[in-house]
Amino acid sequence: MATARVSAPNLTTSSADTEDYSVYANMSEDQLLQLAIERSLADANTQQICSHTPRLMAQCSHLPRSQRVPPPANPPANPPANPPANPPANPSANPPANPPANPPANPPLSEKQCSRINRDAQNHLFRKDKQEVIAWTRYNGFLRVTVESVNDLDPFLSAIWKGDAKALSALIQTKSRKLLEANQDGWLPLHECAYYGHVDCLKILLSAEPETINSRTLKNQTPLLLAVTRRHSACVLYLLEKGADPNLANNQWETPLYKACEKGNEEVVSFLIRYGASTTKSSVQGITPLHEAVTSKNVEMCKMLLQAKANLMAKNIYGIDPLFTAAQCGAAEVLSFLLMKGAEVNTQANDGASALFEASKNGHREVVEILLSRRADVNKSNKAGLLPIHVAAKNGHAEIVAMLIPRTSRAKIRRCGISPLHMAAERNRDGVLEMLIDAGFDVNSMLSEDWSKMYEDHRSTVLYCAVSNSNIDAATMLLEAGANPNLDTFNPLLVAVRKGYMEMVKLLVNHGANINSILPTHPTDFPAALIFCMNFLPMFKYLMDNGCDALSCFTCDYGSNSHPPMKSSRDGRDRLYYISDENSESCVQFCEMISRSSVSSWAGPVIDILLDYVGHVKLCSRLTEHLDSYSEWAQIKDKAMPPRPLMHLCRIKIRQQLGIQRLRQMNNLPLPGRLIKFLRHEKESFSDIL
Description:
Elements: E1 2-7, H1 29-46, E2 123-126, E3 132-139, E4 142-149, H2 155-162, H3 165-173, H4 189-196, H5 199-208, H6 223-229, H7 233-241, H8 256-263, H9 266-274, H10 289-295, H11 299-307, H12 322-329, H13 332-340, H14 355-362, H15 365-373, H16 388-394, H17 398-404, H18 410-416, H19 420-426, H20 430-438, H21 449-452, H22 462-468, H23 472-480, H24 492-499, H25 502-510, H26 537-545, H27 590-593, H28 603-611, H29 621-628, H30 634-640, H31 646-664, H32 673-679
Antiparallel strand pairs: 1-4, 2-3, 3-4
Helix pairs in contact: 2-3, 3-5, 4-5, 4-6, 6-7, 6-8, 7-9, 8-9, 8-10, 9-11, 10-11, 10-12, 12-13, 12-14, 14-15, 14-16, 16-17, 16-19, 19-20, 19-22, 20-23, 22-23, 22-24, 23-25, 24-25, 26-28
Domain SOCS box: 622-685
GO biological process, one term: protein ubiquitination
Keywords: ANK repeat
């Protein structure tokens, strides 16, 4: 015999991790554990040095991640990384030379304590290749695996596990075992026989102790409930014939009929109903057998339950009835049957969501078609004010959105405070967005104040959502459909500039975005877009080329006088980058912004660009200090000194006369190419002339 402890929460990576685990898709957790344990013990066998060496402990590395056992609620304080495979029988006889400073809070059981497999084992299997039995239990986040020869196994336990009725009968006649003796989980031998599906052993045990037929475990499980849970139809029928109570529930108030519907076992459901099982008893969460039958998408079970007087309108603690459940899980055939039996088509859960809302959310197209054909109310909103079309657009269910568009009231959508366009743009559902635009939904619809406050940036428009996601395709669709880029408090152009997304910036500017917009909550004396691109000079110059107000950057209340020291926020955040309800007390000047540590190293090149777009200006003392701080910036300071070149002043005057709108369309103006390049500050090449 050998005992191995298999770690489940911290599994090592092996070559098996790269396997295609699709072969495990239809295996239960117990089957996966069996497979993992067999592989791990096989690996441990290959590491044995000789036949007398105890079997090493194997770490379960073959168990797929989705089936790994979660860590315990109270894990050991310092669990050993590699626990010993075969601890000494008497730990106190040979104490370690250097005992650990922090021993585990729950040390593993000694060899003496778990040297034999007993009835406390939760699961077992008999190996086909060897006369051995493997049993395992969960202990402190580990799987404690015990391997024992079949010949050494307790005869009574062996008879129950193998279903050996003859051996069990002989043992009972010798009265060497107490049939009313429970294991640590309160299981009697009768529970085990029902669990493993050994009907012949079940008959023998009931003949010996008939009063145990409705006995309960510590979790209030009866033999009948265990047999139903494990789909042992023969055991279920025999127990019912012998008088087992079909209405005794476990700790979660789950009856045998509830479990049979949960497992989708029609035969067992028919047995239970025939022997008087209640169809109306619900679990702790208010879930009835009919709810579970609907979840199993089994029409025949639903028919049997309704014929047995199941409550068609029963709701669980969340206000969900069977019809809502059918819509939720996409059980179209069951849904049609329930509607035929009189279920409420507009049923709603506690959160106000309707069956149509739930089906639209989960993308169950066939269910939506059935509900619409039965005139389900498409304008019934949940408590958050959302309609089915909102949630369908949010999750990208284009076919369902197409079905809902002609039936949904536009006035109702406006009263919701949010448009399906917002939902589609926020989740990058471009196909749905295009469909809604083509259907004539207002591309300039604004979020209500309540919805807007749910976002830190207080966004309002659909365009803002697209720009915020850097979705150039969605932004293009919206702008070409007539979206106004200047409706938000925080202009979408500022978002694009802050992200450094030049293509998006050009798109917005070409469609009329206000290049000189400011932040109402944090006003500045200069265009707010410049705040976000001082360390990105190509973007900075592009804004200047397209009419950004450069002259305002040289306005200063202090002029040549000394400036007050810079104020920093208490938490270190630059408040200009965030929207809040607290308005700034004063207007920020450009010289103050350029003096911030994050951008001050770019002061020279930024001022140099600005000087190309202004005439005669006077630098304030703070800007002069910046230029004086670096010797190579001296020429920039000289550039600002009057008089400025006449050609430069002419260029500034022409740009002023053209105005921002014509500057954006300069390439289309009837002007000579050289003049356009001159006005754009583009260096002209004379190589073709020379």
